[in-house]
């Protein structure tokens, strides 16, 4: 049985429903056109119509199809299953919303400008980039799950050029991106959406230049990088393992929660963001600053329950938390090699010798002074209903919800949006991001 993957975001107060395209036909691709099938993937794509599935059978010995293919219809391109991916030695260019399941290829380029979702599942390949400058309008959803990339994922649909005062954007992002349960060797460039439960290893990326400082050289970072645009939507970065910093240049709300972050420079660097942003329950192994929030902020930022220790290869002597203005900094813990200046300590933040807390470099699991030392409010209780543990395993968004990754072939809910606090008599709105096979 062949499967299609449906990506849904739904509100539990509303009857769950979805309208799906009916498969008009299954077009088969086999080596040498065996049994009347198509001999090339592009020939099958050219013959397809919206709603069709193009199903690719691998060649003998897993010899790849050597093609650069273009998809210009709302179809599904798929291999047989996750253990029998269609192998393409070439690139895929998407000109319309479609689904890509069980495929291995070199690169993706996004030229799509419609509002039909792009669904990429169980993909293996190099990178995803965009090549189309959108005009402002409704978003196109891009859902990327259960996939492995040796390069970068770039869906923020913008470029920027450096001016005397920093970077100046000349395009508007349109894509709303969900990335979940993926392994990414490169970096992620995203302006809007959700990054949930991924391992982002990353090579070094040399293209960060400060917006507010006159540095003479570029920084080398591996990072999740969000460009600088004004949108009302939020960006959620939750439950990831990131082998580099998280750098924000984007004046929309951000939720950075329960990540394991390792960076030889700053763990989290934020220049510009907006209302209701929060940095909560992260474990940060930093080489310079743990959390640095600089530049403009229009409202308060919550910085709670973060565990900050030195990077395994570099002992930091920088500030654990550097912020000014309307920021609430409470119940964080950092080793005493970090400076406690840079923020106003209200007496709840802990400084301790490095020997008092042990952090596993791979899992981020910590033991020691951080246990039951987080915010005592019931809104931050751990999964076992005990007081919050400072670090990425504390609270309801615990890294335990995302790792180890499993059940990748089954329907599951990958993220719940629920209020931390509900008063007696209030209506409860619960929103879930789910994957159904």
Task: Write the SSE topology.
Elements: E1 6-11, E2 26-29, H1 41-47, E3 53-56, E4 69-71, E5 76-78, E6 86-87, E7 91-94, E8 99-110, E9 118-130, E10 140-145, E11 148-149, E12 153-154, E13 160-163, E14 166-169, E15 175-180, E16 183-184, E17 188-189, E18 193-196, E19 199-200, E20 205-208, E21 219-221, E22 223-226, E23 235-238, E24 241-242, E25 245-249, E26 254-257, E27 260-263, E28 268-272, E29 277-280, E30 283-286, E31 291-293, E32 301-304, E33 307-310, E34 321-322, E35 327-330, E36 333-335, E37 350-352, E38 357-359, E39 366-368, E40 412-417, E41 431-436
Parallel strand pairs: 2-3, 3-5, 4-7, 5-8, 6-8, 7-8, 8-9, 9-10, 9-11, 10-15, 11-16, 12-17, 15-18, 16-19, 17-22, 18-23, 19-24, 22-25, 23-26, 24-27, 25-28, 26-29, 27-30, 28-31, 29-32, 30-33, 31-34, 32-35, 33-36, 36-37
Antiparallel strand pairs: 1-41, 13-14, 20-21, 38-39, 40-41
Kindly report the average pLDDT value.
78
Please identify, by name, the CATH architecture: 3 Solenoid
Structural class: mainly beta
Number of strands: 41
Number of helices: 1
Binned, the helix content reads: under 10%
**Bulk shape:** elongated
Largest sheet: 25 strands, parallel
Nearest-angstrom radius of gyration?
23 Å
Low-confidence stretches: 1-23, 158-172, 203-223, 225-232
Work out the oligomeric state of the chains in this entry.
single chain
End-to-end C-alpha gap: 12 Å
CATH topology: Pectate Lyase C-like
Q: So what's the CATH class? A: Mainly Beta
Strand coverage percent: 35-45%
User: How many structural domains?
Assistant: 1
């Amino acid at each position: 049985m062949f499967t299609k993957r449906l990506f849904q975001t739904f509100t539990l107060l509303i009857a769950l429903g979805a309208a799906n395209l009916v498969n008009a036909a299954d077009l088969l691709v086999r080596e040498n056109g065996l049994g009347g099938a198509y001999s090339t993937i592009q020939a099958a794509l050219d013959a397809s119509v919206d709603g069709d599935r193009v199903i690719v059978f691998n060649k003998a010995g897993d010899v790849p199809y050597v093609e650069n293919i273009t998809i210009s219809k709302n179809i599904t391109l798929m291999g047989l299953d996750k253990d029998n991916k269609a192998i393409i030695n070439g690139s895929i260019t998407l000109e319309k919303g479609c689904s890509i399941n069980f495929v291995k290829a070199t690169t993706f380029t996004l030229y799509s400008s419609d509002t039909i979702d792009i669904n990429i599942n169980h993909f293996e390949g190099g990178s995803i980039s965009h090549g189309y400058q959108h005009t402002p309008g409704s978003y196109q959803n891009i859902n990327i799950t259960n996939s492995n990339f040796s390069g970068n994922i770039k869906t923020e649909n913008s470029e920027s050029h450096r001016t005397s005062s920093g970077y100046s954007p000349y395009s508007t992002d349109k894509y709303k991106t969900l990335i979940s349960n993926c392994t990414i060797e490169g970096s992620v460039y995203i302006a809007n959406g959700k990054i949930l439960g991924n391992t982002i290893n990353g090579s070094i990326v040399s293209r960060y230049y400060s917006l507010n400082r006159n540095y003479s050289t570029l920084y080398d970072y591996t990072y999740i990088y969000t460009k600088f645009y004004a949108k009302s939507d939020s960006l959620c970065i939750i439950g990831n393992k990131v082998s580099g910093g998280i750098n924000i240049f984007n004046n929309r709300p951000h939720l950075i929660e329960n990540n394991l972050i390792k960076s030889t420079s700053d763990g989290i660097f934020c220049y510009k963001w907006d209302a209701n942003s929060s940095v909560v329950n992260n474990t940060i192994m930093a080489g310079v600053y743990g959390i640095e929030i600089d530049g403009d902020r229009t409202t308060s930022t919550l910085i709670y329950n973060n565990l900050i220790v030195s990077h395994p290869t570099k002992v930091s002597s920088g500030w654990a938390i550097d912020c000014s203005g309307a920021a609430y900094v409470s119940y964080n813990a950092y080793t005493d090699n970090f400076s406690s200046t840079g923020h106003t300590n209200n007496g709840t933040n802990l400084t301790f010798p490095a020997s008092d807390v042990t952090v596993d470099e791979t899992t981020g699991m910590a033991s020691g002074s951080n246990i039951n030392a987080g915010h005592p409010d019931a809104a931050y209780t751990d999964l076992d209903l005990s007081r919050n543990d400072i670090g990425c395993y504390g609270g309801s968004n615990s890294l335990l919800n995302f790792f180890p990754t499993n059940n990748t072939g089954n329907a599951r809910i990958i993220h719940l949006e629920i209020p931390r606090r509900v008063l007696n008599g209030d209506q409860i709105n619960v929103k879930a991001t789910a994957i159904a096979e």
